[in-house]
Amino acid sequence: MIRFEEHHQEIREMISDFSDEKIAPGAEHLDETQGLPKESIGEIAELEMLGLTIPEEHGGAGLDLLSACLVVEEISRNCGSTGAILATHLFEGTAAILRLADDAGRERWLPDMASGKTLATFALAEREAESDASAIDASAGAEGDGFVIHGRKTWIMGGMMAGLTTVIARRGEDNLEDLGAFVINPGVDGCEREPMEDLLGLRGAGFCNMNLNGVMMSADQHLKGSSAGWSAITKVIDTARLGAAAVSLGVARGAIAHALEYSSQRKAFGRSIDRFGAIRAMHAEAATAVEGARLLLWRAAGLIDAGKSAGREVSMANLAAKQASYKATRDAVQILGGNGYSREYPVERAYRDVQALVPFGGGEDLQKILVARSMTGVRS
Fold it and tell me: Which of 40, 91, 9, 54 has its CA nearest to residue 318?
């Protein structure tokens, strides 16, 4: 189910131009300094892109997930770090409020998220619980009329810029049905963020660990839609996987473009190397893999927008995007030869950024397990 309409093309063209003019010039510096793209995110907010999927009654544009995929992909084409922060806000932080909050919660949080006043993120992973939700140790115990939360979350993408974080924690016994989602302001007492530095890729994506030492929360900070436990939370996880796929494909497209330009100018044996069969084959295979993954991504987004179950399609899209982006960036490095290993050329950064994206939303092996499980009906 892919409904690519005129407004989708208009959004893509507008964001593509913006990405080339505003995002590309600062991408290398952001990677080198491990800074935060505050200015870029501010400019994206001015374009009203942070509220892309938020309903109009809450100050957003009320557009679909396909639109969000297009925007994230175009930003990521020039800077994976900025694209990753945007994807986290749209596909994780915003999705958590849209899918799990009640009407009062949406009215409370969404307007500031749409305007850019508040960036949102999602805290699921722990040191011993990355792909295994049953191992989550963070707990939210009842305290008076509210809750008190203890635990440590890791690998929070965009966490150093976020003003709102949805934390997944246990409400009781050690089973998936007792997991719940809780919204906190990272600046409250008992919450400490630790920046994660010297990472291989996405060095400007504001990763952090979060220590939660007796953080007090009111009852309305518990997202009521998460009361069913993991089965409800997976709706956000599916959306998050779309965001990771969109970033991966954007980074891959950027690498392909740079490799094409380089191969048209680099000469060997008296002619440009893009006339050699081996180089042409790498270009063709990378482009085909990326285009195929994009169609899977757009189809999965369309199914979710239509309110249909899309777990298998989401995992297929995530798997295909990661495989395609890995191949595209690896081949781009090869096409540039020795220059592919130099920071003078952006394909080196693209290759590192893709490696950093592999585990988010679940690695390739997990996606294969989920797809196979949906086909066979057998849990391994």
Answer: 91
Task: Work out the angle at residue 352's Cα, subtended by the Cα atoms of residues 350 and 357, and round it to the nearest 5 degrees.
Answer: 90
Q: d(Cα 65, Cα 53) in Å, to the nearest integer?
A: 7
Specify which residues 208 forms β-bridges with.
156, 195
Q: How far apart, in whole angstroms, are the C-alpha atoms of residue 118 and residue 110? A: 9
Phi-psi label, residue 170: left if phi above 0, alpha if psi -120 to 50, beta otherwise: beta
Model pLDDT for residues 158-198, shown as the tens digit of each residue = 999 999 999 999 987 777 888 999 999 999 999 999 999 99
Evaluate if pTM is beyond 0.85. yes
Out of 3.40.50.700, 2.40.110.10, 3.40.366.10, 3.10.350.10, the CATH code matching 122-226 is 2.40.110.10
Contact 28, 201 (CB under 8 A): no
% of the chain beyond a pLDDT of 70: 99
